[in-house]
Amino acid sequence: MAAAILFFYAAMALSAGAAGAKAAVVEHTFLVKQENMRHLCNDTLVTLVNGQFPGPAVEATEGDTVIVHLVNESPYGITIHWHGVKQTLSCWADGADMITQCPIQPNTTFTYLFNVTGQEGTLWWHAHVSILRATLHGIIIIRPKSGSYPFQKPHMDVPVIIGEWWQRDLMKVDKNFSNGGHFSDNPAGATINGKLGDLYNCSGFVEDNFVLNVEQGKTYMLRLVNAVLFSEYYFKVAGHKFTVVGADANYVKPYTTDVVAVAPGETIDVLMVADAPPCRYYMVALANQPPAPDPQIPVFMSRGVVQYNNAPIDVGGNCTKEALMPEMPDQHDTLASFYFHGNLSGLPSNPLLAQIQGHVDEHLYIALGKGSICKGNKPSCKRGGSDESIEVAYMNNVSFHLPEKMSILEARQHTKANGAFMGVQDLPSQPPRSFNFTDPALIPVVPGGKLEELEATRKATTMRRFAHNAVVEVVFQSTATMQSDSNPMHLHGHDFFVLAQGHGNYNPARDVSGYNLVDPALKNTVQVPRLGWAAIRFVADNPGAWFMHCHFEFHIAMGMATVFEVANGPTLDETLPPPPSDLPKCTNMKE
Ligand SMILES: *[C@@H]1O[C@H](CO)[C@@H](O)[C@H](O)[C@H]1NC(C)=O
Ligand SMILES: *[C@@H]1O[C@H](CO)[C@@H](O)[C@H](O)[C@H]1NC(C)=O
Ligand SMILES: *[C@@H]1O[C@H](CO)[C@@H](O)[C@H](O)[C@H]1NC(C)=O
Ligand SMILES: *[C@@H]1O[C@H](CO)[C@@H](O)[C@H](O)[C@H]1NC(C)=O
Ligand SMILES: *[C@@H]1O[C@H](CO)[C@@H](O)[C@H](O)[C@H]1NC(C)=O
Ligand SMILES: *[C@@H]1O[C@H](CO)[C@@H](O)[C@H](O)[C@H]1NC(C)=O
Ligand SMILES: *[C@@H]1O[C@H](CO)[C@@H](O)[C@H](O)[C@H]1NC(C)=O
Ligand SMILES: *[C@@H]1O[C@H](CO)[C@@H](O)[C@H](O)[C@H]1NC(C)=O
Ligand SMILES: *[C@@H]1O[C@H](CO)[C@@H](O)[C@H](O)[C@H]1NC(C)=O
Ligand SMILES: [Cu+2]
Question: How are cofactors bound according to the entry's free-text note (predicted)?
Answer without folding.
Answer: Binds 4 Cu cations per monomer.
